[in-house]
Amino acid sequence: MAKSYRRFSHDESVFATALLAGLPGVVVSLALLWTGDFTPKVQWTLTLIVAGSWLGFAGAVKSRVVRPLQTMANLLSALREGDFSVRARGARRDEPLGDVMTEINTLSRTLQEQRLGALEATALLRTVMEEIDVAIFAFDQDGALRLANHSAQILLDKPAERILGRNARELGLEEWLNGDPARVLSTSFPGHPGRWGMRRSLFREGGRPHHLIVIADLSRALREEETKAWQRLVRVLGHELNNSLAPIKSIAGSLGAILKHAQRPADWETDMRAGLEIIETRADGLSRFMQAYARLAKLPQPNLAPCSLLALVHRVVALELRHPVHVVGGPAIQVACDAAQIEQVLINLIKNAVDAVSETGGGVRIAWTKQSHRVELTVEDDGPGVANASNLFVPFFTTKPSGSGIGLVLCRQIAENHGGTLTLANRSDAPGSVATLRLPA
Hints:
The chain crosses the membrane at residues 12-36. The chain has helices spanning 10-35, 40-80, 96-131, 150-156, 160-163, 168-171, 219-260, 268-297, 309-319, 339-360, 407-417; strands at residues 135-140, 145-148, 182-185, 196-205, 208-217, 305-308, 325-329, 334-337, 364-370, 374-381, 421-426, 433-440. It is an alpha+beta fold.
């Protein structure tokens, strides 16, 4: 049978090495002692002294090596346990062992500062989570609820001790963990009916995936925006109605005063005719305004279908007879759009460009390019440019005497309904403006 030999530990190896280092001197000393002309008493006394010194110094060497290692082990154990207050004494930079102790002390201080910063950041995060009025939930991979802030507890009308650890199915929240990560919910929570915006994201804790879900009440924001929209609408309608009704009332009063007089001036029929024409003009303007508003409010959703952009552009350009429009062109591509609505957008943009160059002269150009995920179509003119770009997309704002202020607003709404954008800005390379319509490719 093969014999198994026990391997020496580090302290045993150090002790054996120290013994072997002193062994030659001890052997020579004892040989000279016992072969020399000494009395037995002297021989035994010196033998004990030599052997004791040999073993004592070997033990001191072992202790000198092992004790610092035990100290470092205790320091590292304290770090592993999270106790960063323990320090090694007598650490100096002028010796190798002191360098090691100093580095361990520095590591302890660094970890202590980092843990303090983490604790402060965690306390701040908890305070913020408890103070915000957005409900925050965290579910682990098994669907168990692990975190719910104060707003989340109010939303469910249950304290944390009654919901933490429970499964999402038990809480009736299983649908949150499935489906689109960002959507609007029409769920009625206990005592909190309304519409809610939900966002779900993934994070890891302890190497395991968790779901972080944020629920925000949209009802208040929607009500505020609805109130603002009504206020803007009332201001616009009131402004237009006052602009039309005030002169109508004034002229009607003047005409009524003429008819009340028994002695009428010789040209009273002319005054009556002129006044009625003004009333008719203002009434017609008010009617056109209401029709423009109804057109904006009743814009249907686009019916998407494949459409050749080149053919669509040429159809629109052929409708403009006042001024030639140069088709710069672009790649032969198809886009999914409502052709009738996009034609209306291009008709309005080209009409505005032609109106602009009718004042200053110059040309109108239309071009398009295909980028990674979108098509960018531009209508460029050599006109005077845009004077007040901030109000271009404000409903009923217009710089034209006969304009309704609804064309650009309608165009932008059509673009946004297609998932795109519409911008109008001054050109940077020359006088004029450029309208940019971006649509998904």
